[in-house]
Amino acid sequence: MKQDQPDIQQINKFPIVAVLLSGAFLAILNQTLLATAIPPIMEDLNLTENTAQWLTTIFMLVNGIMIPITAFLIETFTTRRLLITAMSLFAVGTLICAIAPNFFILMTGRVVQASGAGIMLPLMMTVFFLIFPIEKRGAAMGIVGLVISFAPAIGPTLSGWVVEHYPWRAMFYIIFPLAIIDIIFAYYVMKNVTTRSFPKVDILSILLSTLGFGGLLYGFSSAGDNGWSSTIVVLSLVIGTISLLTFILRQFKLLQPILEFRVFKYKTFTITTAIGMIVFMALIGAETILPIYMQNMAGFSPMESGMMIMPGALLMGVMSPFTGRIYDRYGARWLVIGGLTIMTITTFMFTNLTIDTSLTYLTIVFAIRMLGISMVMMPATTAGLNQLPTRLIAHGTAMNNTMRQVAASIGTAILVTVMTASALDTGSNADPNKIIHGVNVAFYVATALSIIALVLSFYIKGTTPAEDRAEMSRLEEAEIQ
Questions:
Q1: Domain boundaries in the chain?
Q2: Which class would CATH give 8-199+256-474?
Q3: Taking the model in full, what pTM does it have?
Q4: Which one of 43, 57, 68, 347 has the minimum C-beta count within 10 Å?
C-alpha cells in the first residue's frame, strides 16, 4: 500500500525549509555544545578526560544508531508526525540534561537527545532532495551545509561563554525553550512530502547495528583508560566487528533492508561518503581536542577557547551557500580537491603546538581550516546523492549520515586515546609541553587521514548537476525496463 505522491510544486517551501533548518540546527549544535564545557563538567562530576568525552561521543554514536532506522521511519510515518516526534524526544532529553544530578543521568539525557536528533538530519536532507529539482540542490544543500557546519562550530563558542558566566547546566536551559518553539511551528507549518511504503521493521537488524556500532565505539573509547590489550577493549572490538559484519550481510538478504548497502554500487556515492566520514571526523575531533589542550594544558579560559572557534564558524557559515552555488554551476570535483588541500595543510599546522602557542595563531589556522571544510562537506554529499535514483535517496541520506556520524564518534575516540596515550608525562607535576606532545601526535594522525581523503577526491567525476540529471534519468529508465 502506498500513499499518493504529494504535489510538491503546490507546496510553499519556505516554512518547511525554515522549520527543518531550525530543528536540525539545534540537533547538530548539541554534538559539540559540551566541547568547551567538558573541563568544568570533569571538575564538577570528578571525571577523567576519556570518561568525559563520552558526553560528546555518545551523542554521535546514538545518532549513528538512529540514522539507519530513519529510512524505515520516513517510509512508515508522515513527514509532519516524524518531525514532531523527533523534536519532542530531543526536547525531553535536553530537559533531563538540564536537571541531571550526576554523570549517569547526564549521559541518559544525551542518549534521549540524540535519539531525536538522529532522525532530524536525514529527514531534512531527504525532504530537501524531494522538494528541490536537481539543478537547485547545490544551493539548497549549501544552506544545509551552513547549518551542518555552523552549528557544531558555534557550539563550543556558546558553551565557552555560558560556562564562564553561569553553571554548565544553563546551556540546556537555553536550548530547551528553543526546541519547544520549533515543535509548535512544526505543528502548524510542516507538510507531508515523503511517500510511505510501510516496510516491515527487522528487529534483529536494529539489535545487530546497535551492538556493532556500540561495541566498536566502546572499545576505542575505553582503550585510553584501560590500554589496547585490556580484555574489555578487545572483547568490545571483537563483538562490535562481528555484529557489524553480520548486520551488513543480513541487509543484503532482506527484501526491505533497514540500511540499503546497495547504494555503494554507485562509485561516486561511495567515494564522497568516505570523504565525508574523514572530514566530519577531522571537524569533530579537532573541536574536542583543541578546547582540552587550550584550557587544561595552555592556560586559556573557556571563553577564549570558544572564541578561537568563532571566526572559523562565521567563515564556514558564510561560505556554504556560495560553495553550493559554485557546485550547481561547475560540479564538486575541484571544490573538494581545493578544500581538502587546505584542510590537510592546516591540520598539519596543528602538529607543532606548545604551551606558548598564541591565540591568534590558533584562531587563524582554525578559520582557514574551516574554510577548506566548507568547500568539501556539502558539495561532496550532494555529488554523491545526485548519482542515486529517486527511490534510493532516503536510503542514501541515511547511509551517508550513518557513516559520517559513526566515523566522527570512533574518530574522536581514537584521537582522544592517541592524545592521552602519546603524552610523554601525565603526572600532576608534569611539564605541560610533554603533555601537549600527545595533542601534536593526534593531529599527525588527523593529517594522515586528510591526505587519504585528498587522494580519494581525485576520483570524483567532474560532472555538473545537469549531467547528473541525465545520468539519473538513464538509470531510472534502465530499472523500469
A1: 8-199+256-474, 200-255
A2: mainly alpha
A3: 0.77
A4: 43
